[in-house]
Amino acid sequence: MATPQFVLNLRRHIGHALLWMSGVTAVVLDRSHTHVLLVRRADNGAWTHITGIIDPGEQPAVAAAREAREEAGIEVRMVRLIDVRTLPEMTYDNGDRAQYLDLCFLAEHLSGEPHPADGENTEARWFALDDLPPLSDRFAEQLQIALSGRLQAGFKQ
């Protein structure tokens, strides 16, 4: 993912030290809820939902919609918050350490044809729910939560 300027500014002061950040995931379904939008990451080739970092002062749902626009060139409507979790600590190739609080939203497609709209992804496309590419446990779980119809957000204990 492209590193936001505020993170680059922080890194000048803290180096590679662990940085706690807030992020968003958007599980984007088409209007019929029979297809999910996935993007293929440029860095590792994995298929994922839309993800990104929340900018300082930005509302999480606004951040998720912005990320859908930036990563896949589409407009979405946030339906509801579906999952809150802390992701495992990660170390980037340059040595930077980060850990994310992930706020996952169910989103519905409004307009636009998905395409890799920035350099973070090489593909953006719809998949039928019965014909998905391999997904990590996290993204598979979040898709199942989105499809469950559960109205309240879930969280790990």
Automatic annotation (TrEMBL):
It comes from the Bacteria. Keywords: Hydrolase. Transmembrane segments: none annotated. One of its GO terms (molecular function) is hydrolase activity. The keyword Hydrolase applies. PROSITE patterns: NUDIX, NUDIX_BOX. Pfam families: NUDIX (PF00293). Residues 19-151 form the Nudix hydrolase domain. Its cofactor is Mg(2+). This is ADP-ribose pyrophosphatase. It comes from Brachybacterium muris UCD-AY4.
